[in-house]
Design a protein that fits this description.
163 residues; single chain; globular; five-stranded mixed beta sheet; Aminopeptidase; 5 strands; alpha+beta; 4 helices
Length: 163
């Protein structure tokens, strides 16, 4: 753990980011009791670019956990623009949103996810955010418990029904 450093995204790690996001999606597919998620054949090639563009377009950051010259974990987050009508029903004008968090399964439970989330939360705080939001897949008990330990709590529930 001592030789792991947290850095801001660099393009030389794009393939590592692709691998991490694919690993995350494959895990989500494996626990999806509704069998709605999938890893499309183009996922590995395109998803990282889509996520990184969203980060870039929304005042966000992507941080990587690097060990031995390889990204072994990542976190992405955005700070969406406050839309002119948001004030009508929402008083938190500046909030960060965690969009992705993964630490490769080979090295989980070593405090890397904590370091990544602490780094992104610090960025959000420095940018004036008052809250951080994150959507967690309902069947991902490990992630739900991780976020609880970090002080997060549910605010919304998405319900699903098969017709």
């Amino acid at each position: 753990m001592n030789n792991i450093k947290i850095i801001e995204y660099e393009s030389k790690y794009l393939n590592d980011v692709r691998d991490l996001l694919t690993e995350l999606e494959e895990f989500i597919v494996s626990i999806d009791k509704d069998k709605l998620d999938r890893v499309h054949p183009e996922y590995h090639e395109k998803m990282a670019l889509i996520d990184l563009k969203e980060v870039n377009d929304n005042n966000g950051k992507c941080y990587l956990a690097i060990e031995g010259g390889k990204a072994i974990g990542l976190i992405m987050g955005t700070i969406p623009e406050y839309r002119e009508y948001d004030y009508l029903d929402y008083k938190c004008h500046k909030r960060g949103i965690i969009t992705e968090l993964i630490v490769t399964s080979k090295i989980r439970s070593k405090g890397i996810g904590k370091k990544l989330i602490d780094t992104l939360e610090e960025y959000f705080k420095n940018e004036g955010c008052k809250y951080v939001l994150v959507d967690v897949f309902a069947y991902n008990e490990n992630a739900i418990n991780f976020y609880k330990r970090k002080g997060y709590h549910p605010r919304m529930h998405t319900n699903i029904k098969k017709l």
